[in-house]
Amino acid sequence: MQRNTTTKNRSAKNADAAFRVVPSLGHLKHMTDRVGLVQHARFGEPFYDEGYSIDDNARALTLMCDLSHEDNDGHADGDHADIEDLATRYLAYVIEAWNPASKRFRNFKSAELEWLEEQGSEDCHGRALHALGHAANCTAWNHIAADARSGFEEALASTEPFTSPRAWAFTLLGIDEYLRSGEDRCSALQHREMLTTRLLDLYQKVATDDWPWLEDILSYCNAKIPHALLRSGRAMGRDDIVEDALGMLTWLSEIHAGDDGHFVPIGSNGFYPKNGPRAVFDQQPIEAHAIVASSLDAYRLTSDPFWLDEADRAFEWFLGHNHLGIPVGDSETGGCYDGLHQDRPNLNQGAESTLAYLMSCAEMRKHAAAYHAR
């Protein structure tokens, strides 16, 4: 597949300032209370009326585990004790969300601290497993790792009847992290084989030369699917799976390329159905983060500088290299706008968007640290 050549090769500058942005954790802390991370914001203020979600608390737990490996002075307003305290709150939300009666995670909790359903979506279950698997491999905090590992092992079996490709992908990413943390005590290897096979079967059924994808629509968090296949294929020693995953990511890179080379994610106002119109707006920060994370993993596997350029291009969307020329993430507060409309940004700074920005910064710094260590 021909690659986009409109972006400049920046692999020689991988440790430049854009790769070392260290934003404040101030907004994230402002959005966090004793229960966990508040879901939405009105401008820069938490909007308590709409409560909490496991999706956001799971992502926040993943971020805290990543930050636990950074130097104590790596944040403008937080040390490891602050980060551990936040991680404990986010983990507590995820663990409490487990419903032993339904064997599923609940998602939403109201401002009155009542669960709003007996079980959440398959996708939110997969996101919880992704976070728990990641935390199980967090060597900085043994107590958090142990609780996360236990939660992962209890919840993994529930994914067997799932039908959502994204739930499969989130679970596979969690399995990859869990298996690095120690002995497989919940048949994670078998689940990896099962879920990887399901994704490959869909791909072989749906993909065509001009639509190398496993669904008839590009919707949300698209890059998480090839990212999961990339991780699984590498761990399983399956070069064919890795090749398919890289092919999907390459295709996404072409779709995300704007006329002037900047990153243009699939818009959430209609997405992109096969043989249909492609939505450009509203653009969501979570899409940029998905590309940053998957592209950096693709580089770690292939050493191909093309993937560093892709990560850089997606990350710079946060910094203002977008169709509005407006920075989306704010390093001084650590907050992030909820998206870009055609003519203006969405000035609310909710949990999902803020985490997408902070997680992207953490991914880029992790790469910069590895670059300097060589």
State the main characteristics.
single chain; 374 residues; mainly alpha; Glycosyltransferase; two-stranded antiparallel sheet; 12 helices; globular
What would the average pLDDT be, to the nearest integer? Answer: 92
Number of strands: 10
* Fraction in beta strands: 5-15%
Number of domains: 1
Widest β-sheet, arrangement of strands: 1-2
Q: Can you tell me the overall shape?
A: globular
Helix content range? 40-55%
Cα-to-Cα separation, first versus last residue: 31 Å
What's the SSE pattern? Answer: HEEEHHEEEHHHHEHHEHHEEH
Q: What would CATH call the class?
A: Mainly Alpha
Main structural class: mainly alpha
Number of helices: 12
How does the major sheet shape up?
A: 2 strands, antiparallel
CATH architecture level-2 label: Alpha/alpha barrel
**Unreliable residue stretches:** 4-15
Rg computed from alpha carbons, rounded to a whole number of angstroms: 19 Å
CATH fold descriptor? Glycosyltransferase
Description:
The chain contains 12 helices and 10 strands. It has 374 residues and is mainly alpha-helical. The chain is 50% helix and 5% strand. Helix 2 (54-67) runs parallel beside helix 12, helix 4 runs parallel beside helix 6 (165-180) and helix 11 packs across helix 12. The chain has helices spanning 26-30, 54-67, 80-97, 122-136, 142-155, 165-180, 188-206, 224-236, 239-255, 285-302, 305-319, 351-373; strands at 41-42, 45-46, 52-53, 98-99, 104-105, 108-109, 217-218, 272-273, 339-340, 345-346. The protein is globular. It has one domain (18-373): Glycosyltransferase (Alpha/alpha barrel), CATH 1.50.10.10. The strands form 5 sheets. The protein has a two-stranded antiparallel ribbon with strand order 1-2.
